[in-house]
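FORM 7B: Structural annotation worksheet

SECTION A. Query
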Amino acid sequence: MPAKNSSTDTILAKLKIRSLNEMQLASIKAIEQDDNILLLSATGSGKTLAYLLPLLKLIKPSISKTQALIIVPSRELALQIESVFKSMGTPFKVTCCYGGHLRETEENNLKQPPALLIGTPGRLADHIRRGNITTDSIVTLVLDEFDKSLELGFQEEMSFIISSLKSINKKILTSATEALEIPTFIGMDEPTRLNFLLDKEVDTGLTVKTLLSDGKDKLETLFRLICMLGNRSTIIFCNHRESVERTSKWLKEKDIVNVFYHGALEQPERDAALCKFRNGTANVLVTTDLASRGLDIANIRYIVHYHLPGSEEIFTHRNGRTARMDASGTAIIILSPEEKLPDYINPDVEQIELPETPEAAGKTTVVNLVYCCR
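SECTION B. Predicted structure
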């Protein structure tokens, strides 16, 4: 592996990372040499550090204005990137801008421009229109999970933001899928393409298993599975809010403690729910695909697909919440008698056999659940 400079060594030591992986090394080299980079790599592979390290070298201490902008699809991802940057121990100011809290708070933070600005498209566009962001000094642009931002309908806001950045000389796009083409408004002609998705099924640390439900209604099967898994960090994905609410009510009747979390909650309530899952107060997060991206929570052991994912891309992002970096994880797909595995899932994966009764598993039936949906 190429030698790192002393500043990188210091940062890695602070982050308690022993060495950079192949993708990160390739990304750093490409960003240092080229102006347009497209980085494709699986979730949990370390993309954030792959662009933050070279980005740090592009920020000049002599300039007191904002020099780099990172656009993300969700506040959770914005806060995650901010946390990593702060943990690197740099002298540079970083500010997050996202919906769900007072704009005035951000306006006060922006009065002293940060060297690095991270935000969601809607809030960033609002600040630019209000003149709160100095756009002429921004020379580096990162679109993290750009495909998700487009999928969520942020194309108009992103187009406006990019058209407002007249001094950009380096653009970095990242994604864990190849689902979308790069829109023309981004202005990336023949980017340097780093594709680390080709070997995404090799040595990922992820094990996929199936579980057959006796009937179309999978609630009893889910309950027995939770009891068998025990007190391990688990995310359960459902496709609809109505299903989550129904499941929550049913599990409460089974004396399973649960709290729910969805997009209609106020921001403090959402933060509190995620905090409980993150710190281990609640060990199971039941969610729609709202939580399939942007959540970097350590040591998630199981992903349970209560409902089948709508596409291979969704399946990939759901599973990306576990087996991150060098950790291992298991994805479990619950199938009713009428359901079949999608073509993109190996039909020969292991099938789980549950004990006849929850008590036979030797685990407590009182499990903390966090329910999360759109």
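SECTION C. Observations
Residues 75-87 form the longest helix (13 residues). The two ends are 43 Å apart (CA to CA).

SECTION D. Sign-off
Analyst initials: ____
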